[in-house]
Specification:
Layout (H helix, E strand, L loop, with lengths): L9 E6 L3 H17 L3 E6 L8 H4 L24 H8 L13 H18 L3 E6 L3 E7 L2 E6 L4 E4 L1 E4 L13 H4 L4 E2 L9 H5 L4 E4 L3 H10 L6 E5 L27 H19 L3 H17 L2 H10 L1 H8 L4 H12 L3 E5 L2 E9 L2 E11 L4 E4 L1 E4 L13 H9 L18 E3 L5 E7 L5 H4 L5 H19 L23 H16 L4 H11 L4 H14 L5 H14 L3 H15 L6 H10 L4 H7 L13 H8 L2 H4 L3 H13 L3 H14 L4 H13 L3 H14 L7 H14 L3 H12 L6 H17 L9 H5 L4 H5 L4 H13 L3 H12 L4 H18 L3 H11 L10 H17 L3 H14 L3 H11 L2
InterPro entries: FAD/NAD-bd_sf (IPR036188), HpyO/CreE_NAD-binding (IPR038732), L-asp_N-monooxygenase_NS-form (IPR052189), TPR-like_helical_dom_sf (IPR011990)
Pfam family, one: NAD_binding_9
Protein name: FAD-dependent urate hydroxylase HpyO/Asp monooxygenase CreE-like FAD/NAD(P)-binding domain-containing protein
């Protein structure tokens, strides 16, 4: 189905390997990988390392990003990508609101490109160290001349050279000629001279560049002066930022005078309502490019003259830690900021030698400063004609490009394609970032640049190597006959994974991973991996897999596939239950969608729909005619019926499914629940042990079947069998990760509560197999329930309170309304405050089904309540609870406990 979209290799030259160029290269690799397009990608830049550019080459950890980590991902649809990189590279406690070091961000860009190019096997990436000085087109190919006079040829070109160098036009000639003048603070080694001496320094400019240079040059025996027209440093970000506030009404089409008035009103209103002006400016960010583009040139020019300084100082803010450091410098008088412009500069001499501190700088306000160095921190040149890059001059002279509005940047179409002097788009040349500032104004921050980079990559490849139309022949299908948007080889591997998932056998994740390696644009394989990582504990980068699924399904996916990816997105990114209605509707529309059915029914692989209403199960049951008695669907029906208390029907359905497929884990699971809920502990234990011995060795969740067997042994009051089961089938290292948390911890806690385990339980060895992130920041309420049990068993009261605070602030209402109070109740258990614990647990029992999972799994909280009631001396209530349970099923353990209560 998916033959090579473009057999001839297409060559793309990206001029500039800083942040903008690296982001373009990353997205070209990603799209070419999904489409399996053969691509030669040339990154041309004099720098030794790609990704850093001038902005992120610094190794001074005091230089921080001025945007929080959650907004700095390379991928617009995977917001936490940078944050996950930070946690893997020495900053395990990084948070979404952290302002990371700029040098770390450069390393992240470089690593992400390396990863993207390694995964894109159809892409050849080359870094050519050199400066492009000229570009000429010969037919459909560009000839790029480098400074060493060599020529590189390409089919498409992306200009990503970043902001222009500062022009230094403000500096008097004597200063420009001085060895004590630093025209570019970020040039390699530029600050070495000032760093090596104790001379005072003058920074011309008071923006973010000046802030970073001041931090670098600070020393006890030096005064740093900073001057600019406004004498205003950037504002600081709030330590605890508020959500952006959008302006009321529409600002579109307003002249600058009215726009200015309405924006000021919006800021004042936000300050009155929220106590902070920042959310007002943040709320303008999505509108800025559109508002700027609509202004006539006269209004734009007026804004630059009158409003730019105020806008920049409030819009481009310092990280809180940076602002605090700058405040300390100013308080100690080591940094002095004032308004002014350089008027004259004079070198003073002592005898025949030039005094090392011999620059006398007079400002336009008459003040004279004696400094050893002057550093240009005024920022990039505004107009293209001021550029010192020969490529810029060559493009303008040849007519391949034209200046943007007011001469700022280049003229481009909405996709970033260069428009020549004939006002039409010329050859396939694009630009982004600072070069589009004249047309977009806000075009230099990573959130804007990454969007432009992704857009250019798509448009470029759509033009250079468009996807072929889908062939008329029949598409491959999955295990139940649903069509798949992939090729036969990837489909065959996907079917193996889906079969293993349907049977609850191990290896489903490996098969899905192989499917995406065969076809990186196969959306459903990515989506299945995301779900297995999210709920099944598979070692998957869940946000990355989900983003891959979303990108792939947009490019190539039918209605069913798009619907399923949407369901999985809601399941992973939304609060518990957010996607249940959509999932059930999807099943109604596509009753043979095996992955959707697996997600809907709370068996072993996934937690199921969180609202266990009869009509939800009935909807799944109504899909039975579409399956004509297939063992998979029959096994799911069996589990549904036992959850609703129809144990005879559930048992018959489970046995029917096992007759057709003895490896059906869902049917085994349903029958295990039937035996337990009906009190058939001896027969259920014999049958389950027999199945585990014959078929259970390859089960994905073998520990869960062992847990069911241990439940029978607990109910039979057989402490020796429980300890033996633990040792052989439930203790680490046999059980790891999420199964250790859900099954091993739960069984230890129940064994301790019921007296089946005397002495200290080996909880520490189990928790060593569970990631701390899973324990204290669980992604689902079902996992959170078991994290609470684990921390209680370990008497980790402080960690319980941390988990409680995490749940209380969670976007998921189940975390807030069930897990948070459960943490408080279980903390009371851990502290043996039984009269506090018992009523709190009792009140929570009706809400527990919202966390998902089965009734037998949630019963651990009822066991804890029973123990708390007995410990509090509330024997009548404990007696009533036991009687209710014995009315449902027999249990030697419960009979023993009932008799013991009668003697108290």
């Amino acid at each position: 189905m998916l033959e090579q979209a473009h057999q001839d290799q297409h060559t793309v030259a990206v001029i500039g390997a800083g942040a903008a160029g690296t982001l373009v290269a990353i997205h070209l690799c990603e799209i070419a990988r999904r489409r399996r397009t053969r691509l030669e990608l040339l990154l041309i830049d004099p720098a030794e390392q790609v990704g850093t550019g001038a902005a992120f080459a610094t190794q001074d950890n005091r230089h921080r990003l001025n945007v929080t980590a959650d907004k700095m991902s390379c991928y617009p649809d995977d917001a936490s990508h940078f944050l996950r990189w930070l946690t893997r590279h020495g900053n395990a406690k990084a948070t979404a609101t952290e302002f990371a070091a700029r040098g770390d961000y450069g390393a992240y860009l470089s690593d992400t490109l390396s990863d993207a190019s390694a995964r894109a096997r159809t892409v050849t990436l080359r870094h050519i160290r050199g400066q492009v000085t000229d570009c000429a087109w010969h037919g459909k190919q560009a000839a790029l001349r480098l400074a060493d006079r060599s020529v590189v040829r390409a089919d498409s070109v992306v200009l990503a050279t970043g902001p222009q160098a500062a022009s230094g036009s403000w500096a008097p000639e004597e200063l420009r000629d001085s060895a004590r003048f630093v025209p570019d603070a970020w040039a390699p080694g530029a600050l070495d001279g000032p760093l090596s001496s104790g001379d005072d320094v003058l920074l011309v400019g008071t923006g973010l560049t000046a802030v970073d240079v001041a931090l670098t040059l600070d020393r006890d025996d030096r005064t740093i002066h900073a001057v600019s027209r406004s004498g205003t440093l950037p504002a600081a970000h709030a330590v605890t930022p508020l959500a952006p506030v959008a302006p009321p009404g529409s600002l579109d089409g307003l002249p600058l005078s009215r726009l200015r008035r309405d924006v000021y009103r919006h800021v004042r209103r936000t300050l009155r309502c929220h106590g902070d002006w920042r959310p007002a400016l943040d709320g303008l960010r999505p509108l800025t490019a559109r508002l700027w583009s609509a202004l006539p040139d006269g209004d734009r020019a007026e804004f630059l003259t009158r409003d730019r300084s105020l806008w920049n100082s409030h819009r481009h803010r310092m990280a809180p830690a940076t602002a605090e450091a700058i405040a300390r410098l100013r308080e100690s008088q080591r940094l002095r900021v004032s308004a002014g412009q350089v008027a004259t500069v004079r070198s003073t001499e002592t005898g025949e030698a030039t005094d090392p501190g011999a620059l006398s700088v007079t400002l336009d306000n008459g003040r004279t400063l004696k400094v050893g160095w002057v550093v240009d921190c005024t920022g990039p040149a505004a107009r293209l004609t001021e550029s010192t890059d020969p490529l810029d001059h060559g493009l303008l002279a040849s007519g391949l490009a034209a200046p943007g509005p007011l001469g700022i940047g280049y003229a481009t179409d909405p996709d970033g394609r260069l428009i020549g002097d004939d006002t039409v788009a010329g050859p396939p040349m694009w630009t982004l970032g600072a070069h589009r500032r004249g047309e977009l104004w806000e075009s230099t921050a990573i959130p804007e640049i990454r969007g432009q980079a992704a857009g250019i990559a798509k448009v470029l490849l759509d033009e250079a190597a468009p996807l072929p139309p889908a062939p008329a022949r029949r598409r491959p299908v999955d295990n139940l006959g649903e069509p798949l948007s992939t090729d036969p080889s990837a489909a065959a591997t996907y079917r193996i994974g889906l079969q293993r998932l349907m049977k609850v056998r191990s290896g489903a994740d490996r098969a899905f991973l192989q499917a995406v390696e065969l076809d990186p644009g196969f959306a459903l394989a990515h989506a299945a991996l995301a779900m297995l990582g999210h709920e099944g504990g598979a070692e998957v980068d869940v946000p990355r897999a989900l983003a891959d699924a979303q990108r792939a399904v947009r490019e190539r996916g039918d209605a069913r596939e798009r619907g399923l990816v949407d369901v999985i997105t809601r399941r992973i990114q939304g609060p518990a239950g957010d996607g249940d209605a959509v999932l059930l509707q999807h099943i109604s529309d596509h009753p043979r969608d095996a992955l959707a059915l697996s997600m809907a029914v709370p068996t072993i692989a996934f937690s199921g729909v969180t609202d266990l209403r009869d009509d939800a199960y009935e909807l799944v049951a109504r899909t039975a005619p579409a399956h004509a008695g297939h063992w998979f669907h029959t096994s799911l029906l069996a589990f549904i019926r036992q959850e609703l208390g129809a144990f005879d029907e559930a048992g018959a359905l489970a046995r029917r499914a096992l007759t057709s497929e003895a490896d059906s884990g869902h049917a085994v699971h349903a029958l295990a629940h039937v035996h337990y809920e009906c009190g058939d502990h001896q027969d259920g234990l014999r049958w389950l042990d027999s199945w585990i011995g014959d078929h259970g060795q390859g089960a994905t969740h073998g520990a869960h079947f062992a847990w069911h067997a241990a439940l029978h042994e607990l109910a039979l009051d057989d402490a020796t069998a429980v300890r033996r089961r633990w040792s052989v089938q439930l203790a680490p290292p046999q059980v790891r990760g999420i199964r250790a948390l859900v099954d091993s911890v739960s069984m230890l806690w129940r064994a301790q509560l019921t007296g089946q385990w005397t002495g200290a339980v080996p909880i520490a060895e189990v928790l060593s197999e569970v990631a701390n992130e899973t324990l204290e920041r669980p992604v689902t309420p079902f996992t959170a329930l078991h994290s609470v049990i684990a921390l209680t068993a370990a008497r980790e009261i402080c960690a319980l309170h941390r988990l409680g605070r995490y749940a209380a602030q969670h976007s998921d209402p189940v975390q807030r309304e069930v897990i948070h109070p459960l943490c408080e109740a279980m903390a009371a258990v851990a502290e043996e405050r039984w009269n506090d614990a018992a009523p709190a647990l009792q009140a929570l029992l009706p809400a527990l089904p919202r966390v998902g999972g089965s009734a037998a799994q949630r019963e651990v909280i009822e066991e804890t309540l029973l123990y708390a009631l007995a410990s509090a001396g509330r024997c009548t209530e404990a007696d009533r609870l036991l009687q209710d349970r014995l009315d449902r099923r027999s249990s030697p353990l419960d009979h023993r406990r009932l008799g013991r209560l009668a003697t108290i």
